[in-house]
Amino acid sequence: MKENVDKIPVSIIHYNKEDPLTTTGGVQSFAKGLNQIFQSVKFMTPNNLDVKYILNNQMPVICDNQMVSDIPNDIPVIGFQHGVGAVKYEVTRSSGHRRLKRAQEKASKRPNTIWVACADWIASKFEKIYGNKTNYVIYHHINTDLFDGNLENENSRLILHDARTVHKGSNLLPVIEKAFPDWEFQPLNCKPEDVPNRMRIAELIADGSLGEIRHVDITNVGSSWRDPASRPKGDWWSLAEKGGGRLGANGSHQVDLLRWWLGEVEWLSGAATVMVPDRIGRDSGEPWKATADDVSYFTAQMESGAVAQVFMSGVASHDMGNETRIFGSEGTLTLHNRDERLFFARAGRDFEEITVADPNMALAEVNQGIWNVSVVALMQELCNAITEGRALQRGATFADGLANQLVLDAVKISEQERRWVRPSDLIDAG
Fold this sequence. Notes:
alpha/beta; Dihydrodipicolinate Reductase, domain 2; 2 domains; six-stranded parallel sheet; 18 strands; 23% strand
């Protein structure tokens, strides 16, 4: 912003959780912008909020949208919508984003408030989720025609980015990369737990990039159980009485993904089948019976209205790995689990790779593959929470575990009784 811009002859209060004079990042840069725009700016935090001062001086207040409820209703407030708590919570399931969601829900009902959003998709989401209509959208426009990338030093052709560049709903980074193919793009401060492809999928669904999600197809096809002599005698994976089976071992993860992305399962029909019951001990050569499913599948009607199909097998002749495809009214996503490559196509356009590299893949002594690497971020978060003396910011809850198990139980009941089952009914049934 130019320094010679004529300032608006108005004095305002900038109310924030943190003092911009003692913090960095977005809070500080926003505060600097306000100082360049308005005649004078007084900063207040919850620790020094002076309502009497605001009233006596007839000063409007600018603050983050979730904080407008702190200000009495008779004081005019400009609520800045920088991010949608409900969307963030659907993506992360963190307690912090759950609190943000609740605060925004409360704030949306405040009168005497002018709402300003930093992007069109944020404005539309606020109206759809919270019911408050945005008055103004103020966004940054990037005109690549005015910038050809020519620099005296060729080594300076470098663009640093962080996870937010990709995950804010604008898909900005792929656009910039396409506009400047000769430039080098390097991640900056990418938290390992912030960038996996499944979180990328969750955010693209939540921000409306795919439009209305209509159906999802997940397949997990392996060959490790194909040979009757491939498992040791009494292997728990193949014994229902010990909790084994493809449905529980693999299906639990697929159910968790579906609930994360699309909400709860309303109805389902499925089966968990033992295709190769007659087994031979891999080491002993003794015959034994497998009682746990080696093939399982179900079709689900999600609460979002989408239809989901999940198919899992451990007895195929070839290991095909995991394949996830999500079909929306405005776009399609495909995730190839074997090499963790994510592709996205808008309606009427070709697929483009939007894979988000997981930094944990490069760690020494970590076995490759999503099933191994994904655990690392969870352990990092757990260790950090313990050492910092705080609650977990991300992770599944007991309620998530229960909801997932109800879906798995519903699949087995569906097979036994040859009918559609509503998982939530199983709680009432005991």
